[in-house]
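ugh ok so i messed up the first submission bc i forgot one of the chains. this is the corrected input, ALL of the components this time, i swear. 738 residues overall. if the numbers dont match what u have on ur side tell me asap before i send this to the collaborators (the ones from the other lab, u know who)
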Amino acid sequence: MTTLMNRGFLSIVIVVALLACVPFLTASNSVLNFLVTGLLLTLAGQGWNVLGGYGGQYSFGHAAFFGTGAYATAILQVRYGFNAWPAFAIGIAAGAAVGAIIGAMTFRSGLRGSYFALVTLAFAEVLRIVASVAPFTGAGTGTLIKLNVGAQAMQFQSRAAFYWMILALVAIALVVTRLIEQSRFGAWLVAVRENQDAARALGVDVTRVKLGAMTVSAALAAAAGCFYAQYFLFIDSGIAYGTWISVEALLAPIIGGIGTVFGPLLGAMMIKVLGEAAKHLIGDAPGLDLVLYGMVLILIVAFAPRGIAGIVAQVQGWLTPKKGKPHG
Amino acid sequence: MSILIDRRKFLQTSALTAAAAASGTMAAPSILRAQSAGVKIGLLAPVSGALAYSGQQGRLGAQLAVDEINAAGGIKSMNGAKLDPVLGDAQSTPDGGNAEVEKMNSAGVSAIVGGFASGICLATTQTAARYDLPYIVDVGVTDSIVTRGLKNTFRFGPGFGVITKAAIENLITINNNANKPAKTVMIVHEDSAFGAGLAKLLNTALPAGGFEILDTIAHPTPTRDFNNVVLKIKAANPDIVIPANYYNEYVLLARTMQQQKVRPKAAIYSVLGGAASSYKFVKEFNEAAQYIMDCNHWFDPRNAKALELKKKVEAAGQFFTYEVYLNYSCVLLLADAIERAKSADRAAITAALASSTFANHIMPYGPTKFVDGQNTGAAPANTQIIGNDIQVILPEAFASAKPVFPLPPA
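and heres the new structure output, hopefully the right one now
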């Protein structure tokens, strides 16, 4: 246990424990709903971060995994009468499988950088179009999971239960990220990010490492999708495979701190807080909150390119100047 | 360095401001903090995002009704308690709508009116159902909204099934009366619950009515280029084009057809056309709008109160669109239920809505009767844009003009 704590898990335990106390501090479902959507974004963002932050493979199409998870969990319940719990697990596996397939096709073709980004975007769009016309997914009318409140159907009356569930998923994602970070696989992944050719020269199986990261990344994004379907009980092609989730999944780690364990959590909460704050400050002027929100986002990205985690590291550096220049 | 410090200060300040403001929002989620002892009602509309125009129109209609009720002395059975609107922006997404319902519930509203899009309504009604919060759907036409057994959900207007049935029957009537000039059809629909659901129903019902469907084209909302769609229409050359999409896409499609000089032989016949029954469309794109037919929500043109409301909306510089009078009617329906419930209690209002016989409204409906949350008296009307006005062509009981069908030569 001490070793575990020493290896950076203590911070995860503290953060998750603090977050787990929130439902005891507030009974407001709107606060819990706000946090649930923030943690949902964290989960998707953490997925993107594993591949983009640690592996340097910038995907613009995480909607492909999010949507697959969401559709799989919904369709299995609605069409095949599956219980929500196994459907949820299969949804994650389906998302991971789609990640592995797309990864195998793109990495084996040697696609990198902007080409990889564009291809992932294209996959997500193709899936969106297919989902919008295929009767199997409910086509444009979407898939509606029947309201059946009860733990056996993973539909909790209390928002707190949903909150703890998504928090548990985020906790798993944080632990997985930390494990990757501290493992040999993580070192290979960072080596691939820093210089793919050099990593290969040193004996790293680049394709396999990227494929592994893509699969884990897709599984986390798919878990977010499964949770979305279970929480809102309705998905259609625009929600499941829409570009909104691809963009938000990459915004969260970029704002929070790319390639850091807590970056997506910080970023997702920042995005959500900014959205709410903008709405609150602007009041009843439709759309103006989004303008303010966008402007602040631009400023953050412009002035803090390493995200919030970067700012924190910089401040730490200033506080301990003798240790030399901070690395963020 | 000083610049760095300034930047840092700025970031600190903005982050603190944001955090403070957000915590304020979370601590006091009522969007409009009401001080009076009135009856709080949630008015939910997508006033930003892709459906912003419709949402803003819907909010306008609901607010006009609230103002009217309050000016007339509020809820009389509750000693003149005023309606206290709590406004929410669904941001054109189901999760945006869901978050607003949570806030409205925390703010203690007695009921919610609105939602607009089918996808938003499906999510928001379910969330409201968790709190036994009565919810009146203003537009959302997909039938599954009222077939899920949610006791809190009511829809005053007609759903897909009723509208499509009327639309097809009326199209056949119009075609038969003109000696059947039209035989082939092409459907262009947006790909969410509304458009796709409608296309599915049309694909079943139109062939049974003797029409051949040449093609069905789906597009997302928003879509900003219809050139390819119009080229397909040109190639297939159908007698009738049926668009089923929201306002912006509808206008763009009609304008692109006009630009490419694509004119179906018989008609552009819309079912719930986003713009086809819109005075805004008639005024701004009069040429592209000529003779377009629509089967849609419409007010009773013989009703003096409806005409008075139309005048009021137009005097305020706004267009009298269906979102306005549907939301207006839904708020009046709710006020009537609260009046009879004599209470702001949610269960009492739900019961009053379920047994509602709301009359003297401005819609061309039969007697109000809710069966599983759907008003069985609700019905659409067929309209046609002729000159600078929109005329009702069917049902004959409300008609103000004869249909122009097939299209006159260009």
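quick check: Chain B touches chain A through 58 residues (CB under 8 Å). that seems consistent at least. The radius of gyration of chain B is 23 Å.
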